[in-house]
Amino acid sequence: MSKNAKSIKSNINILGGYKDFDAIPMMIGNSELQLDERTQASKKRYIKAIEETFLNYESPESGLLFKQAMASENLSINAKLRIMTLQFYAVDRLFQILFDDCFLNILSSGRVTITKHDVIAFLDEKINNFEIAVDWSRETIDTVSRKFLTILKKLDYLEGKRKKRFKGVYNGADFLVFYHYWLEAFDDTSDVFASKFFSLLMVSEEKYLFLMKQDEIRNNLDWHYSGDRFTVEPKLLIKEYVNEL
Q1: Helix or strand or coil: residue 25?
Q2: What 3-state class would DSSP assign to 89?
Q3: How far apart are CA 66 and CA 69, in angstroms?
Q4: Which member of 4, 14, 122, 133 lies 3.0 to 4.6 Å from 102 by CB, making a disulfide possible if both were Cys?
Q5: What DSSP element (H or E) covers 52?
Q6: Residues 6+ apart with CB under 8 A from 29
Q7: Beta strands in the chain, from DSSP E residues, in sequence order
Q8: What are the tens digits of pLDDT across the range 63-86?
Q9: What contacts 9, CB < 8 A, 6 or more positions away?
Q10: d(CA 182, CA 23)
Q11: How far, in Å, CA of 116 to CA of 150, rounded?
């Protein structure tokens, strides 16, 4: 599904202000979301945002993978945060745009910091050029910019306060194995480099090839590289892999 196929939602604003964001993985495994909020209005707002972002799936297989990953005791905290990013990216158009076209572009330029003013400038340009069809006030644009950076900090991509610094990204073997089963859920393993999710690894194709040569990866995935196309075939069915998580 293309970025233009989904409407812009305000879940970045809501989840960026949710104080118990770190507890979301544990919540996902419960049959009913349990939130400790002072008012029913705020509780409903957070529940709706969590459901739309983390309990709304592009396919039954991706939902099965995500929910089991959040409940798993075998995956590292780092892997779970990266998996939350995969899910956020899959269902939230605004997060996709800001992550790919703002955050990653600034990072690839050689910058080591990012501020809300960078995001504001990006949003202003996209809105003025009608690339993002919203009618937002200055206050809303400011809030979206701040909350997006807050979410990236909660997902462990950034550190710091006003001027946030990029943190190094670690693609552990547990996350990389999961990542390719995630691609399988989207029927996206025949050309990994062309996948919309490849940018989330935040590595070059050369670095990716190096990572894929690890024994733990080879024990879980079959892959073939032809020089311009990288094809992966998980050794288990998704349901079998989920049972092992």
Answers
A1: helix
A2: helix
A3: 5
A4: 122
A5: helix 40-54
A6: 67, 70, 71
A7: 113-114, 158-159, 164-166, 221-225, 230-234
A8: 999 999 999 999 999 999 999 999
A9: 52, 92, 93, 94
A10: 22
A11: 10
Tell me if 204 sits within 8 A of 150, measured CB to CB: no
**Closest residue by Cα to residue 230 from 197, 199, 195, 201:** 195
Structure tokens at 219: 């024990």
**Which two three-digit tokens encode residue 55?**
């309990």
- How far apart, in whole angstroms, are the C-alpha atoms of residue 209 and residue 32? 41
Instruction: Output the six-digit token pair for 117.
Output: 């003013």
Instruction: Report the alpha-carbon distance of residue 205 to residue 77 in Å, rounded.
Output: 25
Structure tokens at 114: 């990012």
The predicted-structure confidence for 172-223, as pLDDT tens digits, reads as follows 999 999 999 999 999 999 999 999 999 999 999 999 999 999 999 999 999 9
